[in-house]
Amino acid sequence: MWKIKPLSDAEATVTGHVPGRGRYAGMTGALRVRSAEGLEFRLASGMTDAV
Fold it and tell me: What is the pTM of this model?
């Protein structure tokens, strides 16, 4: 038996970053991005401490 999960995929342009806070001070906290439709948002999920 296979477990299949739905997946959404999109592309966006990185426009900047937000500094980390607390134990992440001095690191990248989130990336500021803009989609092709002009939607701007922050993306932080999936980054490692090395980023």
Answer: 0.68
